[in-house]
Amino acid sequence: MMLVVRLLRGAVKRAGSRPPCSTERLISAARGISSSSQDFSAFGRTQSASCTDTDRPKILITGGLGQLGVGLAKLLRRRFGKDNVILSDIRKPPNHVYHNGPFIFSDILDYKNLREIVVNNNISWLVHYSAVLSAVGESNVSLAKEVNITGLHNILDIATEHGLRVFVPSTIGAFGPSSPRDPTPDLCVQRPRTIYGVSKVHAELMGEYYHHRYGLDFRCLRYPGIISADSQPGGGTTDYAVQIFHAAVKTGHFECNLRSDTRLPMMYIDDCLRATLEILEAPADTLASRTYNIHAMSFTPHDLTQEIQKVLPDLKVTYNVDPVRQAIAEGWPMALEDSAARRDWGWKHEYDLQELVQTMLTQINTGNHLAQAN
Ligand SMILES: NC(=O)c1ccc[n+]([C@@H]2O[C@H](COP(=O)([O-])OP(=O)(O)OC[C@H]3O[C@@H](n4cnc5c(N)ncnc54)[C@H](O)[C@@H]3O)[C@@H](O)[C@H]2O)c1
Ligand SMILES: C[C@@H](O)[C@H](N)C(=O)O
C-alpha cells in the first residue's frame, strides 16, 4: 500500500508543472487508498469538473443563510442561471429564499452528506461561507473550533477529492496586534488573538497547502467588515456598522459597542460580492497568490455617525463599550493594503463612505432592502 502511495506521489511531483486538474485526480486517488482520516472510497473514479465547466459551473454555497450568502446566490444566479447555484445551511430558509432557487440542508460537519450533495448535484465550484464569527466565537470556542476548523477540513477534502474550485473567505480578523495595522499588507506577521482569527489563518494556510500539494483550485479573499441593508450580521465585531443604519432610520438613537475612535476597514456588500465573483472567474494564471486582501474604506464610529448625520441630523449616538469586541477591534487592521488584488485580477471598489451611507439609507428608507431580498 505504501509503495502505491509513494508511486502516486512521484507521479504527482512529475506532474507539478501541469494544470491542477491532472494532479487533483492523482491526489484524490492517492488519498483514496491512504490511511487518511477520510475514506475516499471513490478511488480511481473521481471527477474533475472545475477545469472544464467554468462557463456554466454548478455552485454550492455553504452557510448560505448568513449575512452574505443570499446576496451572493442572487448575483451568481444572474450570472450562471438560477438552477446552477444551490444555497445550503443548517437553518430553515425564509419563504422568499426557499422559493427563489435551489435550497438544501447541508451540515458541513457531516462529511458523507457533503460528499453526497457534491456528487448528486454535479457541483464544480464550492463557496464556503459557513463560519462562527469573531464575537460569537469568543463566547463559544468549541463551536468555533468545530465549525471553522473541522468544517474547513471537510470542505478542503471534498473539494480535493472531486476536483472543485473552492472559495473560502478570510477576514481582517486573520491579523492581530503584532501585524502592521495601517495599512496591513498581504504578507506580514499574523498572530490573531481570537479563535475566529486563528481558524481563518489556518484556513488560508491549509487552502494554500492543498493548492501546492494537491493542485486544489483554492481561492481566498480577506474581507473587511461587510455592510448590508437586506441581511443582518451574524455576531461579529463590525456589526455596529450595520446596526447603526437601522437604528438611525427607526428610532434616531444608537448605542454603539465600540469606542468612537475605533478605526476598521469596511466594505459595502455589493463590492464584496462582486470581488468574490471576480476572483472565482479569474484565470488561474493571473493569480500570483491564492489569498488576497481587498480594501474599500476605513472609518471610525465617529466618522460614520457624522456622515449619517449629514442626512439624518437628529441621530444621537451613545457609547456603551463591549470590552470583548473592543479588545478584538484594537488588534485588527485599520486599513488593508490591496495593491496585489488590483494588479493581478483588476479589483476596484465602487463604494466609499459617502456612497455607502447614501445607499444604505435609501434602501432602508424605501424598503428596497425587503424588495431586494425577494
Ligand atoms: N460578514 C462579514 O463582515 C464578514 C467579514 C469577513 C469575512 N466574512 C466571512 O464570510 C463568510 C460569510 O459570513 P456571514 O457574515 O454571512 O456569516 P454569518 O455568521 O452571517 O453566517 C454563517 C452561516 O453559517 C451557518 N452555519 C453554522 N454552522 C454550520 C454548519 N455546521 N454547517 C453549515 N452551516 C453552518 C449559519 O447557520 C449561518 O447561516 C464567513 O466565512 C465569514 O467568516 C464575513
Ligand atoms: C470582520 C468579520 O470577519 C466579521 N464581520 C466579524 O466582525 O467577525
From TrEMBL:
Its EC number is 1.1.1.103. Pathway: Amino-acid degradation; L-threonine degradation via oxydo-reductase pathway; glycine from L-threonine: step 1/2. GO terms for biological process: L-threonine catabolic process. One of its GO terms (molecular function) is L-threonine 3-dehydrogenase activity. Coiled coil: none annotated. Catalyzes the NAD(+)-dependent oxidation of L-threonine to 2-amino-3-ketobutyrate, mediating L-threonine catabolism. Belongs to the NAD(P)-dependent epimerase/dehydratase family. This is L-threonine 3-dehydrogenase, mitochondrial. It comes from Scomber scombrus (Atlantic mackerel).
